[in-house]
Design goal:
With 457 residues, the chain is of the alpha+beta class. It folds into three domains: 129 residues, OB fold (Dihydrolipoamide Acetyltransferase, E2P) (Beta Barrel), CATH 2.40.50; 88 residues, no CATH class; 160 residues, Rossmann fold, CATH 3.40.50.150. The chain has ten helices and 25 strands. Strands 21-20-19-22-23-25-24 form a seven-stranded mixed sheet, sandwiched between helices. The chain has a five-stranded mixed β-barrel with strand order 4-5-6-8-7. It has a five-stranded antiparallel sheet with strand order 12-11-10-14-15, covered by helices on one side. Helix 2 crosses helix 3 and helix 2 packs across helix 10. The longest helix has 18 residues. The structure holds S-adenosylmethionine (SAM).
Length: 457
Amino acid sequence: MVRPPLPPLAARRHRPYHRGMTSLDARGSLSPEVVWPTPSRPDPAPVRSTGKRAREANRPLPPIELELTGFAAGGRAVGHAEDGRVVFVEYGIPGERVVAEITDEHPGYLEATAVQVLRASEHRVEAPCRYFGKCGGCQVQHIAYDEQLRLKAEVVRDQLQRIGKFEADEARDLVLPMLGMDDPWHYRNHVRFTVRRDGEIGFMQRGTHRFMRIDECLIASDRVNEILDATQDRTMQTRQLSVRVGEHTDELMVQPKVQWRTGRAHGKLESGQSSYHESLLGTSYRISGPAFFQVNTRQAERLVALVLDHVREVSPRVVIDAYAGVGTFAAQLAAEVEHVVTIEESAAAGVDALENLGAFTNVTRVMGKVEDTLPGMTPAPDVVVIDPPRAGIYASVVQAILDSAAKRVVYVSCDPGTLARDLRLFVDGGFTIGSIQPVDMFPHTQHIECVTVLDRE
Ligand SMILES: C[S@@+](CC[C@H](N)C(=O)[O-])C[C@H]1O[C@@H](n2cnc3c(N)ncnc32)[C@H](O)[C@@H]1O
């Protein structure tokens, strides 16, 4: 396979914010003139207002000036409009004073985008990506990485209080500092690109159905960028291109099989694979097209190690791995405990798990929904590991775990809001939270992953 060299990457380091300047461009950097709306941003989305004022006027609401005092789930800073309504402000940072353009109006709150910084946060940096603010994949590249980590951990504390109704002191003590990456760039092992009829490859512009060409993605792995470079302007007969790479195995899954455009020179790229392998902590996994796998291999190894440590601590005999995917946790746990039961509803992930767990005689694979299969399951589990999608788990699943013999629950969550909701049910049912460890699986984006350990009192 010919692997063309990567084009030089844009500067990976954040550049500090220049204090003497006032207006924002799409990368969160300052420019001396006030440009508004800034030309490098996508055209402002029309205000989808449910409010009487904007509806009657049928025109965008005027921009507002406001202090940003907080940071919310979704990666947006929070301020208050003159009428007291909360305003969620994209591309702002707590502590700043900004001018914000209203993008949506709701009866109780407004949504807005910062277009001018009147007083900058010391944590504001120039986003290195030339597409930042346009493609929408990253929401917080304009914030220094250490501050991103601090703010995301604060979001978890905030959600515990607002949604889980935990006390502020409790939330502060339970949530540990977020585990960040030493090099928080080029981590994504899976990117789904949009392909235009003429072979151009890119993403959809933030908040629109408009295509934008991308020649490099700073959060995608080098290998993904190499494949983007090799296929850019050269493919046809597809609207999407999914690229998944094994960081440790060098294997690829490029779907669908690339149809090369006639007359455009191209190297040789193997594509159309239906599965590939990745390894975590030395354990190999087969992953097929429709199956979920963690997109950040380096941080996934830390996540798996955390889960393993929490399980080992209580020396269980039987562990249920619910929402097991291709067997990510089970393949590591099977070597350590007497019996592992996996529960997974995806048939594709189930087929992968058959290969990934096939060597173990102490693993039982249950195909089906957790809510249907977990209640009353035998053998009775000592520990339950749960790793649900963002929606979290049904109350009936919490109840089934409360009714089981499980003395420990290890809850891997990718949504602090549903995590807070579910933790309240566990705590009311007699479990105590040991700790909540946020792990930065998605640097520069709004997304927050947490590993929570709970024990039966
Ligand atoms: C966040 S992924 C975690 C997968 C795995 N633990 C890992 O780390 O690779 C969630 C998994 O739960 C599965 N899933 C979603 N809803 C489910 C349900 N109600 N019952 C069983 N599995 C479900 C999905 O197919 C997916 O494989």
